[in-house]
Structures are given as C-alpha cells and as structure tokens.
C-alpha cells in the first residue's frame, strides 16, 4: 500500500494488490494506455492534461466504464483491459477508482461533441514535465503508478 497527500490536501491510498480490497467500492475508473512509446492523455476543459477516466454509470461494469470513458474523452477504442490498481481518495465523501491498462484497437477522428478538447500522446518524460497537467497528474500517487506500470505483467 502506498499512501500520499494529493494536491488538494486529501489523504490517498494506492494498492497494486488486486486481492487487497478497500471498504469503498470503486465507482470511478482511470485508464493507462501506452501506444508506440507514448501515453494516451485527454485534455480536460477545466483541469488540463490527464489520463482518461470517469464515473461508472448505472448498470455498467468497471471495464465497460473504462472503455466508454476512454472513447468519449479521446475517440480511441481500446480492449484487453487489465486491472492495475485501486486508488482511494479520502475527501468527503471518499471515493475509489479502479485503474486499468488497455490496448489501442482503433483511433477514430475526434469530434468536438465529446466532453474534452481531445487527446494527446506524451512520452513519459513529456508527461513528467508538461506545463498543462491536471492537478492529479502531479501528485505522488501518479508518479508511483507510472513507476509501477513498468513492473506490471503486461508486455507493452
């Protein structure tokens, strides 16, 4: 377990052990997609550059939500999802994100009817130094997840 304080001052817990469950059921998803040496990011209208993700809708599985959110935010179709981590933020009320990795199936043309300004592809170095990162992309948890994804069972 990795514990840290996020940019908003909230205690966060991060677990890479799928058998370790938090008391809070995940209702949000976050997705890491590496393609041709670059990370898929979305450009959130308010927060800036971040990994795609969002809330699980009624009747949806975590996996369905991950696939849908990535497409809605980037117009990239993904598959082969694998669970990677659980990420709990202890704000009021607390919430949990299920973090996945996925593979690119197809990249469609981005239509501006989506909830973001589109997608961008960044190397790990560009991701660490980009001036327009979302607040959560700057915290210790994100840095830890980027380190751990290299050790993940998935072969990029």
TrEMBL record:
Coiled-coil parts of chain: none
Pfam families: NUDIX
InterPro entries, per the entry: Nudix_hydrolase, NUDIX_hydrolase-like_dom_sf, NUDIX_hydrolase_dom, Nudix_YtkD
Membrane-crossing segments per the record: none
CDD domains, A to Z: NUDIX_RppH
Domain of life: Bacteria
Keywords per UniProt: Hydrolase
Domain Nudix hydrolase per the UniProt entry, residue ranges: 1-146
Recorded GO MF terms: hydrolase activity
PROSITE patterns assigned to the protein according to its UniProt record, in alphabetical order: NUDIX
Family: Belongs to the Nudix hydrolase family.
Designated name of the protein: Nucleoside triphosphatase
Species this chain originates from: Ureibacillus sinduriensis BLB-1 = JCM 15800
Species lineage: Bacteria, Bacillati, Bacillota, Bacilli, Bacillales
